[in-house]
Amino acid sequence: MSRNEAVIIRSVLTMSLHTPTAAIIEKPFGTLADGRGVDLYLLTNDNGMQASITTYGGIIVSLTAPDRNGVFADVVLGFDNLDDYLAGHPYLGAVIGRYANRIGKGTFTLDDQTYDLARNNSGNHLHGGIAGFDKALWSARPRSRPEGPQLRLTCVSADGEEGYPGRLDVTVDYTLTHENELRIDYRATTDKPTHVNLTNHSYFNLSGPGGRDILSHEMLVNADHFTPVDEGLIPTGEIREVEGTPMDFRTPHAIGTRIEDDDEQLQFGDGYDHNWILNKPDTDPSFAARVFDPTTGRVMEVVTSEPGVQLYSGNFLDGSLTGKEGKAYGRRCALCLETQHFPDSPNRPEFPTTMLRPDDVHETTSIYRFLAR
Ligand code: GLA
Questions:
Q1: Of residues 178, 201, 274, 341, which has the active-site annotation?
Q2: The total number of structural domains that make up the chain
Q3: Where in the sequence is the domain holding 157, given as residue range(s)?
Q4: Which ligand 1 atom minimizes the distance to the CA of 338?
Q5: What is the pTM of this model?
Q6: What is the pLDDT of residues 274-291, one digit of tens each?
Q7: CATH number, domain at 274?
């Protein structure tokens, strides 16, 4: 019996103790240039919702959700083969680390020592650098949990990787719950003081990618404030009220309503590419945002323990990428809601800290919940 068959049988057996339909199936997804094998795991919950996740980059390759008639569709951008991911892409579905979003000039000072990070975005550091967690090969362990099937991914980032101090041990648990949630629990520990900010970079289109853009999706963001940026999308340090700006999503409305407004912030991002400061009483997971697609009735709610969320409206997509089922990914054909600490926090002592010390454990949770109406 092959290793894959053994995993499939074991997974289905353990799942059947809890539920008749939930399962995890593993299959090979390809090979890296250095010969290491990459796997793809298909998680199915009790309702038939499915997520497929690859050990390359911890990438969510597909995620299905029911519309108002109970019809499932894949709601994330991705490729159906490993080679397309290896050819390069804008972080589709990937785990982002060590630091999601930007660090200005790719440098920070910690305990009187200055660290130079990889500069991969106009002189700044973006999404962990040149070879961030989106390009790591993660170890995987499928698990049966009462809430639903879970894939535990782990990786070790060596001391000095992409310029960061400390060896970082990282665990990402993806759980596809029977409540139709994709729950992501992040955990990291270090052996030297360092900075950590982990997220997932899924691109969503609730109509199903490759057709309509997301400008008619209705958005609500539970935030009274955002962090304005400069031309390089680095926060200026100002905490600005959303009131009276195109960033005001406190009542739901179509994303496209004000995206073309004559507004300096929108010009810097070529649309929405900003961090909202969530209205949060504490660091427990709480409601961050809701997206509704009037065409299909699909709703996605985002719940997070993080203090911020980056809404990126797919402004840099330009039709040059062809994804699953041969569909081209045009400008604003999908949106990201990247739960996170604020960009450039290592250089902004006034922002919630991203510092992690050896005696501490970095633990955050983000949940993408799917409904229909
Ligand atoms: C993030 C950034 C964007 C862009 C995308 C990837 O969302 O904020 O500016 O780099 O990733 O293209």
A1: 201
A2: 1
A3: 95-372
A4: 7
A5: 0.95
A6: 999 999 989 999 999 999
A7: 2.70.98.10
